Predict the structure.
Amino acid sequence: MSTGPAPVLSLDTLVRVRRGQRPSEAPRRLPIPEGMSVPLGCDAVAVPARFGPLLLPRLPRVGCVYADAAYWWWIVPSDSDVALEWPAPAHYAIGAVLPETPCVPGLIHKPDGTIPYTPPIPLYLAVCRIMGIPPAWSRHISA
């Protein structure tokens, strides 16, 4: 049995292979309500549904919030994960892209005005507090 050079694929072959593939579905995102704008981009933070009602009264401003049986989703500006370690079981979703779920969560809170954001720092602090985890910047560093 000889092992010769690998076969060379022509551009035509690659195009035929690509055309034979089913186009991938676009990612499902949380929908921003009509009339609202996202000048800072859009990400989302999901927390288990049992924590959602505990977070609402702790926030100075609440943006768009979506919910299903498993999670409450909070719209935040893009890059709200920079320098923040969102504690598990919270989930940070870049672009407000939903994981594989049977349906899109329903909108349960819409703020007055045209901006859908919940401020990320108060949300982060409230999530840490509710989950009993100190914020990343206040943890001890061992040498």
Q: What stands out?
A: The CA atoms of residues 55 and 126 lie 6 Å apart. DSSP finds three helices and five strands in the chain.
